[in-house]
Amino acid sequence: MSRTTRRRIGLVAVGATAGLVLAGCGGGDINSAGGGSSSGGAKCGTFNIAVNPWVGYEADAYVVGYVAKTKLGCDVKYTNVKEEIAWQGMNAGTVDTVLENWGHPDLVKKYITQAKTVEDAGQTGNIGVIGWYVPPWLATAHPDILNWQNLNKYANNFKTSESGGKGQLLDGDPSYVTNDEALVTNLKLNFKVVYAGSETALITAFRQAEKNKTWLIGYFYEPQWFLSEVPLKKVSLPKYTEGCDAVASKIACDYPEYKLNKLISVKFANSGSPAVGLVKNFNWTNDDQNLVAKYIAGDNMKPEDAAKKWVDANQDKINAWIK
Amino acid sequence: MTATATDAAAPAPDQGPGPTLEEQPIVEYKNRRIPLKLAIIAAVWVLGWLLLRGKMTLSLPYAELNGFMNWLNDVSDKVGDWQQTNFFFHTVLGNIVTFINDVVAWLQKMLSTPPGARPTPEIGWLGVTAILGWVAFAVAGWRSTILVVVTLLLFNVLDIWTDGIDLLIVTGLSVLVSVAIGLPLGIWMARRKRVSAFFTPILDIMQTMPSFAYLAPLALFFGIGPACAIVITLIYALPPVARITEHAIHGVSESTVEASRSLGVTKGQLLRRVQLPMARRTIVVGINQCTLAALAMATVTALVNGPGLGQDVIQALQALNVGDAFVAGSGIVLAAIMLDRTTTAASERAERAARRGSGSTLAPRTRQLLLLGTAVVALVLAYLSHLYLWAAQWPDKATIGSDVSSWINDATNWVVNTFDVITSFVKNVVSYGLLNPLQSLFSNVPWWLMAAVLLSVAATLGGRRALAATAICGAIILGTGLWYDSMQTLAMTIVATVLTMVVAIVLGVAMGRSGRADLVVRPVLDTFQTIPSFVYLVPALALFGASRFTAIVAGVLYAFPVATKLVADGIRGVSETTLEATRSVGTTTWQTITKVQVPMARPGLILATNQGLLYVLSIVVIGGLVGAGSLGYFVVAGFSQQNLFGKGFAAAIAITAIGVMLDRIMRYAAARQE
Q: What are phi and psi of B308, to 5 degrees?
């Protein structure tokens, strides 16, 4: 390396560092110019909310986050991760709360029962439903399709290039609980499960099917913002009874209803932060969540703005959360 | 991007500039019996398929795990326990992680994210732009300064400042660490053959193993956030630095080294005074490749909450908001163009400096004064942006991010609504006509027959060494227990590669023959090479449905830029005298292309196919997100559900084995023909 180059690199480094330091030490004039966006923040401190990758969850997270920021003065941080990673984060103490948990018995056992680093923080008020859905036009044109016993009659219509001569049953994001392969086998349906691989793929498929009036049956769930755009109809499977899903390969019944709950890291629960109470009291309906989710996904609002809009219109509910 | 950047972000074992073509006779098969042998293999294969279809295919149902996968699950659990109990993981690693996260948090506070009560970062946009512009001036020249300033202004205009700067912070730190490790490693590899032999396969695996497979365990060790994001980026971005450094030091001519030795310099002096300065230009190319590879990881790191524009892309995808995804994606493209051109300019200057002793046309003294003066200006601007709101906060009225987003959404809707019937017809034709039969041929025959086909094809094309590589990789695939799915993925990869090459040859020939075509097509190629595939997944899904064909489309879109650039390079390499000669005997344009240019550019075409194939394989996982099933889907599932981790990891191993196998067959086949 020639001497000039070395000197030049030295200059660059000195210049850049000096710039940062100089600016860092300068006065706080700009603070008085624009400040006041958050009030205090001393009492609450940092509040880390995990954001799992579906819009309904985003609605939960940003509404709670907005309330925590504006009413409790917390410094809210959103951590965008999948469910399992979020549990790992609560275990490590880098995530404070998960606001919508769909069961996950394996993780409950690992982190709540065994490691005792995570605890249940009560229900969100949302009821999770999983099942097989068809686009509304199909339910209107062939109402008997909503009963699983008639599915074989229509199997040919559901054929696609992906389903190897059988009817196609489209599954979505692998994060979600699915018994569909066992169901197809045990209910003796002439269908093949095709893995779309992501929620995005699943929603796009349903959207196109409704628009072009094409045949489609697939795995879906509520609450979900997309249902306010296209109200998919649920196909009834043999009724769920306690324990009918005990052996995975023998399952021949519908999915159970999930009472969705919140989780909180033990470390955070013992921290005395006022946000702990907020998380425990947070409770709303499927309609509430769908509305905020629709603001985000349907109307393309920023999550913060969507949360503000809902919070401003629902002060009574908020007051019950922060009492 | 410049020709040197063709294999940006590539899982490319071949680095360095493509072969230059001198006049060569039209290449003939040395062994005329090869086509005959291949025909016999194909006949046996089809016969076997007809007779033994569906038998011993080793297919494994979705939720079923084998012993190897369960063992991987156990390993992952054990390693998870260490994180809690083992001193090294808990304390040593913990402190490193905290340190990295603190550095990132400090840089964010300074440059991108308003800390606490302040409405703006410590240095506002004006200051950041001035400082980065000055750095570009110092290392690369004033043209780069203009590029940097324009890019950063566009970040403001598109309303992606915070995440755009975060992206630069994470990329910058990753590149810094990559160079700090990769440069010495490359030097070491260049000096000792054994070291090189040991690290080369490791670097291969680092580049071809899909990062989804190890995302969850890494997040366990490095926590959620910047430190983990940097480690993930490092794994992918480090190999180009090490490889190209090794290549560069080897490239210093033997006579120069001999001459220096005869003057009695020590090994250290030789390295510092001779080899490094002479290899400097190529090493900077390595840093350029490293930078682009780092940017390619932006969306993946967002999955473990790595800061940057990748997060916006992922979030927009959840809401199916193509417009927002596009705006964030173009931020990544802008960053890539800026960093690529700046590092390339820096490398050119380094070359001039090596030749003349100074990279600048100015006298050293004048240049130093100029640098000092502009530094003062930059610092003053930085200070102003610390003090005054006008220099720190970009006015909302001067942003067009949301307008661009809604235009894109409208345009996408129009395209989808107008063409979706035609495109789904195309999907069906390709799926029923080509994909289904081919996949059946690959995966629905007994595994031993397919293995025999692969081995004999490898032996016929590439000889003994290709046979050995195929045997090893085949055994690994068999060992993962995912033979059936691997063969399905292999068939899809081959279809995607064929389509890629069709596009690449058409565009590449046009570019190679006409400078104007090159001028028009090259920016398109640059864009597709750097824009995250997530951006165009939603329209692709709407047009082609959740299907294997959509995965193939995504693969082609990602792979065709590299392949096209290499084809164009090959075509351009055909010597002018040969072309003159053919023209003088009155051949038509079509004849010139098919009889002279394409055959003579064969080495370039082979390299392009090789790269195209590896690029296609590198996004098999993305295919899993849009309905491709098979290996890609298992890797995604393994990342999402801990009881499927083992299966996902096994699938990732199989993908890597397929990549290495195909690469070796092609390389040895090409070497045999020369």
A: 130, -175
The CATH number of the domain where A190 resides is what?
Answer: 3.40.190.100
Of B62, B117, B135, which is closest to A12 when you measure between CB atoms? B135
**Distance in Å, alpha carbon of B629 to nearest chain A alpha carbon:** 6
Tell me, yes or no, whether A18 lies in a domain.
no
Beta-strand relationship, A233-235 and A118-134:
antiparallel
Which neighbouring-strand residues pair with A76? Answer: A47
Nearest CA in chain A to B350: A5
Determine the Cα–Cα distance for residues A140 and B58; give it in Å rounded to an integer: 43
On whether the pTM is more than 0.80, the answer is: yes
Count the helix, strand and coil residues of chain B and give each as a percent rounded to the nearest 5: 80, 0, 20
> How far apart (Å, rounded) are the C-alpha atoms in residues B88 and B547?
45
A310–chain B nearest CA distance, Å: 18
Q: Give the Cβ contact number of residue B418 at 10 Å.
A: 10
Residue of B nearest to A8 (CA): B138
**Of the residues A250, A273, A289, which one is the last residue of a structural domain?**
A250
pLDDT in tens, chain A (323 residues): 444 555 555 555 555 555 555 544 444 455 544 334 444 444 788 999 999 888 899 999 999 999 999 999 888 999 988 888 899 899 888 899 999 998 888 889 989 999 899 999 999 999 999 999 999 999 999 999 999 999 999 999 999 999 888 999 999 888 777 888 889 999 999 999 999 888 889 999 999 999 999 999 999 998 888 888 899 999 999 999 988 888 888 889 999 888 999 999 999 999 889 999 999 999 999 889 989 998 988 888 889 999 999 999 999 999 999 87
Pairing status of strand A167-171 against strand A217-222? parallel
Residue of A nearest to B384 (CA): A23
Interface test with A, best of B393, B641, B644, B647 (most A CBs within 10 A): B641
How far out from the chain centre does Cα B237 lie? 9
- B128 to chain A: which residues are within 8 Å by CB? none
Which residues of chain B does A88 touch, with a Cβ-Cβ cutoff of 8 Å? 216, 219-220, 224
CB atoms closer than 10 angstroms to residue B264 = 7
Residues from chain A contacting residue B619 (CB–CB below 8 Å): none
What is the Cα–Cα distance from B106 to B90, expressed in whole angstroms?
24
CATH of the domain at B587: 1.10.3720.10
Q: How far apart are CA B349 and CA B457, in angstroms?
A: 47
Q: Across the interface, which of B119, B547, B549 has its CB nearest the CB of A35?
A: B119
Instruction: Answer for the pair A228, A297: CB distance below 8 angstroms, yes or no.
Output: no
**Hey, what are B196's tokens?**
């090189």
| Other C-beta atoms lying within 10 Å of the C-beta of residue A221 | 22
**B612 and B574 both lie in a single domain:** yes
Distance CA B674, CA B669 (A): 9
Name residue A183's amino acid: L
Burial of B498: CB neighbours in 10 Å, binned 0-12, 13-18, 19+: middle
Cite the beta strand spans of B269-413 per DSSP E: none
Which domain covers residue A285, as residue numbers?
46-126+259-321
The crossing angle, in degrees rounded to 10, of helices B212-222 and A83-92 is: 20
Same domain? For A218 and A301 the reply is no
- Closest CA–CA distance from residue B489 to any residue of chain A (Å): 14
How many residues are given for chain B?
674
N-to-C CA span, chain A: 67
Sign of CA dihedral B314, B320, B324, B326: positive
Q: Pick the last residue of a domain from B289, B308, B325.
A: B325
| Domain count for chain B | 2
Chain A interface, best mutation among B145, B224, B313, B492, by max A CB count within 10 A: B224
Name residue B26's amino acid: I
